[in-house]
């Protein structure tokens, strides 16, 4: 099987690789950069017991909000859930475990994993609720805490353009958490509005090199950004 055939696949086949109980990083900051088509297919296939890692919980009726509403998510690692009243209710009722970090800490925990580090030292949040379960130490006369890195079984990524080898290019603010998560997960599934043949992306335009990407799906831009299930085309 060629490298091209291994990476360029259908949305159904790509998502079918995710088992129940998987941990999944999901790109996006609100709607920009969120891989809606991949999430909608995950909802359709019925995987459950999931741990999701995303900057936010989206709104109730789009993105990971639909998975939370359907009861498919057991644990959410995030920086805020304020726009999703369903996630707040599920958390308050004890049906959804929510682990929250300041946005900068969350991003660095993911970046650290992608760089191959086990964690990092920080003085952010000392003597607050954030630090309750962290190990503290002193370095060069300053008190700090160990913040562990975060990894995941899968990352679901949104790109503007990809090639069949898996090189990815993002557009504008949609870049956000996507390149960090693409480096921090064991397997990476990327959706893109356009998929080029090898050589179709100039080297200087590539944000995420193909070495980090396992599968690429082409989706219709007319539907996927609206949180409506999209099919590979």
UniProtKB/TrEMBL annotation:
Pfam families: CoA_trans
Gene Ontology BP term (one): beta-ketoadipate pathway
Any one GO molecular-function label of the UniProt entry: 3-oxoadipate CoA-transferase activity
Species of provenance: Marinobacter guineae
EC number: 2.8.3.6
Protein name: 3-oxoadipate CoA-transferase
Family from the record: Belongs to the 3-oxoacid CoA-transferase subunit A family.
Pathway: Aromatic compound metabolism; beta-ketoadipate pathway; acetyl-CoA and succinyl-CoA from 3-oxoadipate: step 1/2
Keyword line: Transferase
Catalytic activity line of the entry: 3-oxoadipate + succinyl-CoA = 3-oxoadipyl-CoA + succinate
């Amino acid at each position: 099987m060629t490298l091209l055939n291994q990476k360029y696949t259908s949305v159904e086949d790509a998502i079918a690789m995710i088992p129940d109980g998987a941990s999944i990083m999901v790109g996006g900051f609100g709607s920009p950069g969120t891989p809606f088509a991949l999430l909608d297919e995950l909802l359709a296939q019925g995987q459950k017991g999931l741990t999701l890692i995303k900057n936010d919980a989206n709104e109730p009726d789009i993105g990971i909000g639909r998975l939370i509403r359907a009861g498919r998510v057991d644990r959410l690692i995030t920086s805020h859930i304020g726009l999703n009243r369903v996630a707040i209710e599920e958390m308050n009722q004890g049906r959804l475990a929510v682990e929250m970090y300041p946005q900068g800490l969350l991003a660095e925990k993911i970046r650290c994993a992608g760089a191959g580090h086990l964690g990092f030292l920080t003085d952010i949040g000392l003597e607050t609720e954030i630090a309750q379960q962290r190990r503290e130490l002193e370095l060069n006369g300053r008190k700090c805490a160990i913040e562990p890195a975060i990894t995941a079984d899968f990352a679901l990524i949104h790109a503007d353009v990809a090639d069949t080898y898996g090189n990815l290019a993002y557009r504008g603010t949609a870049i956000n958490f996507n390149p960090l998560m693409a480096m921090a997960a064991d397997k990476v599934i990327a959706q893109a509005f356009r998929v080029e043949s090898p050589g179709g992306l100039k080297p200087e335009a590539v944000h995420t090199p193909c070495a980090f990407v396992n599968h690429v799906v082409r989706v219709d831009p007319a539907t996927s950004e609206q949180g409506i299930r999209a099919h590979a085309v």
